[in-house]
Amino acid sequence: MNMKTALVLLVLAIATIFALVCVLLTRGRGPSTCQQQPLEQEDTGGGQSLVFADLSPEEMVQVVRYLRGALGVPLVDASRAKPSDNCIASIDLQVPAKAEVLRFLDEGGARPPREALAVLYFGNQPDPNVTEYVVGPLPAPAYHRDVTVRRYGGTVPYHRRPTLAVEYQQIMEVLRGQVFPTAPSFMHQVLEYDGANLAALTAAPRGFQSGDRITWFALFQNVSGFFVHPVGLEVLVDHSSLDITQWTVSRVFYNGQYYTDMVQLESAYVQGRVSVQKVRRAPLDGDFSSMKPRAPRAAPFPLQFEPQGPRYSVKNNHVLFQAWSFAFGMSVSRGLRLFDIRHQGERIAYEISVQEALSVYGSNCPGGMSTRYMDGSFGIGHYTSPLVRGVDCPYLATYLDVHCLAHSQLPRTTKGALCIFEQNLGSPLRRHYSNLQSLYYGGLVNSALVIRSIATVGNYDYVWDFIFYQNGAIEGKVQATGYPSSSFLHGDGLRYGNRVWEHTLGTIHTHFINYKVDLDVGGVKNSLVAHDMVFEMTRAPWSPEQQIERPQLTKEVLDTEDQAAFRLQSKLPRYLYFAANSKNKWGHQRGYRIQISSFAGDHIPEASSMERAISWARYQLAVTRRKEEEPTSTSIYNQNDPWTPTVAFTDFINNETITNEDLVAWITAGFLHIPHSEDIPNTVTVGNSVGFLLRPYNYYDLDPSIYSHDGVFFTSEQDPTACDTNPVACLPAAASCLPNLPPFTYEGFRNA
């Protein structure tokens, strides 16, 4: 072997060794961590959205401190107040008047003063009442004004006050300490009562006429998922007196029979005159009601991630996503709300907010048959729950804290109670494949921004979403899950639901959700227009002896509030839209269409003595003139006095003209729930989702999503695997990175 050959072999050997070393060094190395790219657009709002921002804990503390010093009366912490005390029930943002806000946002006017709305219970005075004060300016309050009469046309009687958490605690103390001990044999032998193994669930409203505060409490085994563990005992508590020592049980129900009190029940039991249905004692995990998985762990579920970081921004209470921007907040009573919603810089809506969640139950037990829950009175925002990363929202969503002051004089922070995320919905927003004449494909992934909160009000969990699509549409959606409420199965119980366990009747009930949608389409002044269709019978022009049935467009301007009030089961025009005073390129009035998704049950008969309190549920849609004195469709005081409602929505509809006016759409969506065995252990969201869509209707000259950066288009003459032709082809390189997953944390039980 000559020297030249040896050198060549040596070089080849060195190159081979080098290549092998490179392979070995890189074989175990995974892809790099995804790097966040700067957003194409910056948030240049200058903090204007803060006019809608929720109160900070510091501001809440300042309001409490001011009221304690300025009112000149003793204020007891609401977490330990007796009905005969004065206390601060809640503090929330006082949203400024719309005209003031628009002058500030659109005309460079002065920023409206920042104010709080405080609800106070005055039980320690000759004329007990509920009073609402506006307190400001924040962050250093210097004034307060009583707005109760201006808002409600009179004072709010004390019996209408929403029930504080401490009042339920006081009722349970009376039951445990004074009532249950009067039936020792029954309680121990039938219910195996040990002082802690029973939980109570309130019915509402509380009585049959104004002034009543008499509540049925159904008893359940105190285990996980107690809502489906009824024991058959229910008690009617009269807690109308401001003196707790005067509270009494005025009726008792057990397994289909009524008794005057627990003493009579005990006597009947000892004498063998009670039909006993003893319920097997459940373990603490609830057994059949436990949500603990019954299957071993397997491969992880699919995970979405953002290869170049989020394509949206959240600054204070302002969100920016592609062509969308909006401000968000959380009302203590009504929950999630949005303000100043804009697309391509133009305001589409001034406010979109949840108003109320109503459930009407049926049963042959007194607690169930008398229940009509109005969740706003309990506090949809107050009971907003902490979110579990990766389950309640995508793992990589943005999680935000929510601050609230209610039922206590101290603010409470719920960690990670609101989430914002962009979601690839796994389907095209639009697409077309052409194999006729020209050969091409065009499409756009349906990727949308979601803002979500979940409120757990008693047994139900409501998942509240507002969704923003690239074509300019907005969706408001609620999904219901949690535990079904139940009654003890006895007698003719199957007329009111399905048996879901040995002694458990899943009781029939309705859900009604009400939204306020203050659209400002092309400006504040709008009209309501209905488009629909009829079949027109005509003769074929080329063959007059033949008849053709062709769809024809119908058009109608709805001039008055009465015309725009659509009853729950009535026929709604298929295309109903808010029309602007401007036209698009093609000569049509620019508009936004309202499309409702609902399969509601029937509304309570209007002959009912309490129907006016929930009269918003008469209508699937009602459009009224916007008025500052009509800010909400209901009141937190309606729950405990529905017979003389503080706010009756039907009074909003008085045949005023709605042509070229500032209008509000009040939307009601709902569903009928007949619980069934698959609602055990609890109800799933699938099929239990209702809401509405706001869709551009001739608002643009063409679909605005055509300007999305996510669009895909290629022809038969192009290489679809080339990045410069098809952005999806770039994904193997652009998305071959590891998402930066933060460690899982959860602080949801810290304030429980």
Q: Strands, helices and their partners?
A:
Elements: H1 3-27, H2 57-70, E1 86-94, H3 98-107, E2 115-122, E3 129-136, E4 143-146, H4 148-152, E5 156-157, H5 165-179, H6 184-189, E6 198-202, E7 214-221, E8 230-238, E9 248-254, E10 257-259, H7 262-270, E11 312-315, E12 318-321, E13 324-331, E14 335-343, E15 346-361, H8 366-369, E16 372-374, H9 375-378, E17 398-406, E18 412-436, E19 438-457, E20 460-468, E21 474-482, E22 486-488, E23 497-501, E24 504-507, E25 509-519, E26 525-540, E27 543-558, E28 565-567, E29 575-583, E30 589-597, E31 619-625, E32 661-673, E33 689-697, E34 711-715, H10 731-734
Cofactor: Cu cation
GO molecular function, one term: quinone binding
Domain Copper amine oxidase N2-terminal: 75-143
Fill in the keyword field for this structure.
752 residues; mainly beta; Nuclear Transport Factor 2, Chain: A; Beta-galactosidase, Chain A, domain 5; 3 domains; 26-stranded antiparallel sheet
Major sheet characteristics: 26 strands, antiparallel
Alpha-carbon distance between the termini? 85 Å
Can you identify the CATH superfamily of the largest domain?
Answer: Copper amine oxidase, catalytic domain
Oligomer: single chain
H/I helix tally:
10
Q: SS-based structural class? A: mainly beta
Shape: globular
Percent strand = 35-45%
Mean pLDDT: 94
Low-pLDDT runs of 5+ residues are: 19-28
Topology, number of strands: 34
Whole-number total of structural domains? 3
CATH 2nd-level architecture of the largest domain: Distorted Sandwich
Approximate helicity band? 10-25%
State the name of the first-level CATH class of the largest domain: Mainly Beta
